[in-house]
Amino acid sequence: MAVTLLPLLAACGGGESSSSSSAGDGSGTSAAGGKTSAGSSGQLDIPADASAELKKQYLVENAIAVCMKKQGFTYTPEAPEDFRTGWATDGADYGLTKKFRQKYGFGYTAVAVYPDDPQVSRKAANEPSANAKYMDTLTPAQKTAFEKALGSPPDPKVGQKDWTGCMGTADKEVYGGESVEDRSAASTSENQANAQALNGDQELVGLAQSYASCLKKEGITVTTTQPTSIGEMVKLQAAESAPAGAGGTASVEAGANGEKPEGDATPETMSKDEALPLLTKEIELAMKDLACGKDFRAAYFPKFFKAPGSTGAG
Question: How confident is the prediction along the chain (314 residues), in pLDDT tens digits per residue?
Fold first, then answer.
């Protein structure tokens, strides 16, 4: 559905521009990127500590709601997430990451052991959004009209550079005249430059080498020492042997004692007793990785957050 395309619109933003007052320039006290909901005005309150870019993403959502209301539809603005929030328990905050990994490892097998725990369960994420629920109340003709009013991404085949409908209107209000396509191209170039800068940072290069040496002493395979890749390297290796559907890429390759579980095991089909040995092994691996990379991540993330377009992460 068209509503699922909104994060892409926000992600394409870049550059400074003025924004229309109709976008609902409110302020709030929630943490940047927190999942706040629209108030009685139908507008999101913008966190007081939101970055300039995150603020624009909030403004876009609010402007879409205003535009859709003029078209005769209800659109519930969806709070964008500060990209830094997702890294808090994935290395950026050592204390929070340690607490998470001590219980869930990397979070792959844990869903079989803690199926109702929101920290690892997909149940909440799979809940339909307010806009999806609203669309379910519409007739087929009304749904078509809603999607047309909301808009769609640019179609390069016909020379389009901007979103259509209310998403396009909101984008122009907040970002000005620069097209989505041009901003996307600029963002790609910035991503590459930021990644090169991080990978060429001598402090990070030295810390990455120490990180790799520590992993090797723990018997963990090292496939890269690039600062933008090494922090996620062990986690990605764990994903390759995690149960299918757990965030991993394949069925379980080997259990805690090296045996491959029978059948196509997934967290949904595995019992808690079957999953516990795998989770124990995953926790052990995750904690070794965290300890070895402590100094590296402490230096990496402050620099990574200053260059949010960087590819890879520590």
Answer: 333 333 333 333 333 333 333 344 443 333 333 444 555 568 999 999 888 889 999 999 999 999 999 999 999 999 998 888 889 999 999 999 999 999 999 999 998 899 888 888 777 667 889 999 999 999 999 999 999 999 998 888 888 788 899 999 999 999 987 777 788 888 888 888 999 999 999 999 999 999 999 999 999 999 999 999 999 999 999 988 776 545 443 333 333 333 334 444 555 667 888 899 999 999 999 999 999 999 999 999 999 998 866 655 65
Burial class (CB in 10 A: 0-12, 13-18, 19+), 181: middle
Burial of 11 (C-beta count, 10 Å sphere; 0-12/13-18/19+): middle
- What CA–CA distance (Å, rounded) separates 250 from 299? 33
Buried b (16+ CB within 10 A) or exposed e, 264-287: ebbbeebeeebbeebbebbbebbe
CA distance linking residue 296 with residue 298, whole number of Å: 5
- How far apart CA 160 and CA 145 sit, in angstroms, is 21
**What pTM value is reported for the model?**
0.73
Distance CA 249, CA 86 (A): 20
**Alpha-carbon distance values, 214 to 202, 208, 236, 250 (Å):** 19, 10, 18, 28
What separation in angstroms does the CA of 143 have from each of 128, 267, 291?
16, 36, 52
d(Cα 252, Cα 150) in Å, to the nearest integer? 42
